[in-house]
Amino acid sequence: MLDPRSSQLADETILFERIDHHIAQVTLNRPQARNAINAAMTQRLEAVVRTIEADATLRVAVLAAAPGPAFCAGADLAEVAAGHGRSLMTRDGGFAGFVYAARRKPWIAAVQGYAVGGGLEFALACDMVVAAQDALFGLPEPKRGLLAAAGGAYRLPRAIPRAVAMEMLTTGTPIDACRAYELGLVNRVVDLAALPQAALALAAQVAANAPLSVRESLAIARVAAELDEMELRQLSAEATARVMASEDAREGPRAFVEKRAPIWRT
User: What is the DSSP letter of 262?
Assistant: First the structure.
């Protein structure tokens, strides 16, 4: 496994590692700027997301950050002030080439320190979040005359109680990791030193399951708040047909009966 702090990778602002055969880790590696997103990171991150999507052996990805005070401070305001804000977005992926990117596989955010502005929007774009005890989540855009336009303004009220989201969106005041856990924004809170392994352990639990089952379940869950009961029932029926037609639907019960680990094919 590559060490994101290795000198040979010091000039890479987005690191891509294959942790094992089925797990990818993507690391924001601009700690001197609190991992604020610039144009180069945007292009690189979009390319990495596409690589992970195209690799059939990869089942889950972890979005992490290099050691430092911040997971991500959002957009690089120096670039925004210079009139280069559009370079921090791509047509398909939106902000940083990530928040609107088409991703069929689950992503887990491993958050340490500040996850503010686009940093929180990264977490909201992921499917699960593991946070260090020092993590802070916030949308300070109103303090800068800006808007949480990379999904934060509508994803946050879907992720946590409306009243709390309204306060965060209008005051710019952050919440800490424990409060985020209480509100359901975070899956688990761990010591900072334990964060990398905790995120990878959750990823390993996902990767151990049938990839097609995970992808189909995820696709339904992601739109559960947007569609009505009949639409979701139809999506579920179509997904069930695809899953039941797969070899994995036979392998799972067979492995259970034979008391062995399943060997997934799809």
Answer: -
